[in-house]
Amino acid sequence: KEEWLVEESSALVNLGVILHDADRYQEASKYFREALEIATKLAEADPENREMQWSMAQNHAWLADAMKGSWDFIGAMEERQKELSIYDGVLAIDDRDARALEGGVVALMDIANLYVITGQYVLAEEASRSSLEQIGQLIAEDPSNQLWQDLESAASNRHVEALMMRGKWEDAHQLNRLVLSRAAALVAADPTVMYWKAGRLMNARWMEIAIDFALGQTGEAREKVLRFHREFGTDPDLPRDASRTAWSMVFAMDALDHRSAGDVQTAAARIEELHSLNPSMPREVLVFRHLQDEPSSTQWPADRAEQARLIKYDPALILISTTGN
Predict the structure, then answer these.
(1) Of residues 295, 212, 206, the one with CA closest to residue 247
(2) What is the pTM of this model?
(3) Contact 124, 162 (CB under 8 A)
(4) Contact 66, 20 (CB under 8 A)
(5) pLDDT by residue (tens digit) across 133-146?
(6) b/e sequence 32-47, b meaning 16+ C-beta within 10 Å
(7) Which of 9, 18, 127, 265 has the greatest number of beta carbons closer than 10 A?
(8) How far apart are CA 200 and CA 88, in angstroms?
């Protein structure tokens, strides 16, 4: 019976993953929820079985991802908190359980992300700091582990953004310099791993530009915008839709900078480039909405305008520095 239930749960997760990857998040949630019910039943029947605990935690994670995809941020947060409590239970027994530490890092990063999206920046800073501390424990055990190096880079990206949203620009600047070196080292170690470039290095680069603008280093920021285009805009293996958030941020900062200098035509071209990315993630949606409030902006699709009301992320906290206001 138990083996059959494990197989059934696994099959439901697989169906959910297929739908999740096809952006059919509400349908995916149905399968993840059914899988979670089975995994929870098995874990509660055998609380000493760490494999069952891990499976239950991962089912919470999948459901959280699907709920976040359908913009149910409160529900996603609840699922991530439940997932994290499972890892905490394992770590209370064995504080060196690598899988629980690793899972906790990912959960804390996503919790921090959800706090940023919902405008809870103090909590985002706390959660992202905790994720960094936890991945630090793993790195101390095995500094050469590339998976953990990648997690450290991702957790650092998240913490830098939280610091930026809090207006802690100098702290963000210092940490982002370290993030850039770590991300560049990952890319140099294996240039074929595109998500290290798209998900780690490019995020650190757009944050670097935002930090320079915020600190009044406008000339350096403008040069780094050009460098961003040179470095990532001509790579045939790195399409823009693989890194839409980074491109959205760079286009937005460049547009606002040109507009503040009176170059409305170039600004409009940058906004149109952002529009062509078909922004869909929360940050992208709010960044485009922020630009739409300007009179010369491209019209915003009705469904995106409706979505924007669900998010509390304030791009003005980052982008306002671009205009010198």
Answers:
(1) 206
(2) 0.89
(3) yes
(4) yes
(5) 999 999 999 999 99
(6) bbbbbebbbebbeeee
(7) 127
(8) 27
